[in-house]
Structure formats: C-alpha cells, structure tokens
Amino acid sequence: MEGSLHGCRRVFEHFQPMLDHGARVVVVSGSQGPEFLAKSDRSTQLQLLDQFSTPEQVLHTSAQLLTQTQTLSHKQHQSPVGLSRACLNAYSAALAREFSAHLFVNACMPPCPDSQLGEQPACAIQRTEQASMVPAWLSSPAVRAKGQLFGGDGERRSLVAKRGRSHSPSASPPMGNSLTAEQSYWLLQLGLAEYSEAMAQIGERLT
Fold first, then answer.
1. Are 52 and 132 spatial neighbours (Cβ–Cβ below 8 Å)?
2. What's the CA gap between 137 and 182, in Å, rounded?
3. Where are the alpha helices (DSSP H) in the chain?
4. Residue 90's closest CA among 131, 145, 142, 34?
5. Buried b / exposed e across 37-64, counting CB within 10 Å, b at 16+?
6. Angle CA(44)–CA(6)–CA(106) in degrees, nearest 5?
C-alpha cells in the first residue's frame, strides 16, 4: 500500500502543479486489483467503486480496508497486494473525476516484464518493450478517455474481474499483434526526440 498507492499519490501531488492543460497521467497498476474486488464482499466493492469519491476519501477508505484485510486475509485468502492495486485503481478514477477539466487520467495493467531464468537479453528487452507499449500509448494525444482501466492488450477493463475471465497480463495477446492502427501510429510519434524534450522541460521546471 505504501509503495503503490501512496507512492502514486506523492508523485502526482509533486508534479501536478507542473502539468499543462490536456496533459496525460498514466497510473501503472496490476491485475491483482480487479481479481481482489471480484472476491471481495459487496460492502468493499461499493466503497472502492463509489463514483462520487474524492481522492482523499479513497485514501481514507484504503486505510480502513487495509486494517480489515490484515485481520481477515487468512480466512478470506485475500492479498494485501490485491487490495493495494484495487485502491490504486479507485484512486486513479477519483483523480480523473477531480481533474477532468484539464487532465486525462487513466490506469493500465501492462504485461509483466520480468525476465525468465536463462533468458537471452534480447528476449528480456522485448518483453520490457511490450510492457511499456500501453502506458506509452495512453500518454499520446490520441487518447481521449478519462478514468478508465486498460489491460495489457490496450482494451478497456472493468475494475472488477468477471467470473471465468482472468485479468492476468499473461492472458492478454502479445502487444505487437493487438495494437490498432491508431495506437501503432501514435507509438511511432513518441520518438526519442519528443521524449528527450519532455524530460528537459521537466528538468527546467524542477530547477
């Protein structure tokens, strides 16, 4: 919870004053969140799916749920990691509502880039590149969505995993075969020059 939810909060609060109108904010989450909510009771689901919650209310609810989960996790087999991802998704949606006038905030669950034992470096690099494709696309001007959760295939996902359907990134088709023409186009536009310029602008604002 401290690393995922509050780490995201700290980064957003620090950079939010520097963001221009129409900026894209991409929250990188994980498949454990929707799976956690699918196994949770109705009360927990309602708290984290409340479409009127503010970011501050989500943080308060998250602290309460963390205490409850630590007490009941052995009985319900619920993971604190799943809770932290579910809270992160709820926080992302709350940010999108609060800053809808001038920011595009979305969350995504990219494929896991972890390399396998004995894997060739080129394969590990390819897996990492695939994991970064959806966050990169969500950072492009092509995206007009707000407050949505996207899977590793670039498709929208529910905050609650549907029964019989895994939200695991491994269940998604390879990114290279699933991007639409529009997604591929904007990924090509996110070249090194634009990235370097963006990093330089951030550096100037921090100095």
1. no
2. 9
3. 5-15, 32-39, 42-48, 55-76, 80-98, 121-138, 175-178, 181-189, 192-206
4. 34
5. bbebeeebbebbbeeebebeebbebbee
6. 75
Could you tell me the mean pLDDT of each successive run of 10 residues in the chain, 207 residues long?
Answer: 88 93 93 92 93 95 86 61 94 96 93 53 56 84 91 89 57 43 51 53 57
pLDDT digits (tens, 9 = 90+) for 111-138: 765 545 444 555 555 556 667 788 888 9
Residue 5 pLDDT: 93
DSSP structure class, residue 190: S
Task: List the 23-28 sheet strands across, edge first.
Answer: 23-28, 103-108, 149-150, 156-157
> What pTM value is reported for the model?
0.74
